[in-house]
Amino acid sequence: TVRRALALDANLAEAHYLLALCLRDQKDTTGASRALATVVRLNPAFTPAREELADLDLATGRTRQGLEQLEALAALDPTDPRRATDVARASSRAGRFEFGMTTLARAAERFPDDPDVALAMAEVSLDSAQAHYQADTVRKAIKTLAPLAEAPTPSARVLTQYGRALYVAGQFADARTALQRATATLPVDPVAFSYLAETADRLHDTVTARDALVKYVS
Fold it and tell me: Is residue 20 a contact partner of residue 32, using CB atoms and an 8 Å limit?
């Protein structure tokens, strides 16, 4: 049906988008990416298409192209801090730590009270610190994350990153406590089980380490 509609009018951005979703569900990532690129060409402001294209690019190793889509989304919607944090986190995963921090510094100026911006800054700092160990950076990350983790209802992601920071700093007992809280908070960030397994192993807590590793794998 979608292909028939496109045969009648090849400039229907919505039809190309629907085709892309169908191809994605059929695991045809190449075809889906091509269809999504057509959508973006026909309608540069078609946000859902750019989001899908960014996800596909990043998932298939096309990091530069994925970042370009995330940056375009941030430009299209400058009032949403999530766009900036998406760019920063993807940049950090690509090893572009300085660019990620620069992006977040600008976001912090626009959204000084946004907790996710603060969380993303701590995450990118930790990524950089683990790649090139920097004790000062780890301490700053802990200082940023501590009040977020001590809030009445911290998210699992906050607790996970707080536990990770404590682990990197060598504070294994405190890290285990934070990560146990993270794995008990819904929705659970799966990587928390991996961090908990490593931390418990450092403390020779084999029962906790084994249980966390089993849950992480499952």
Answer: yes
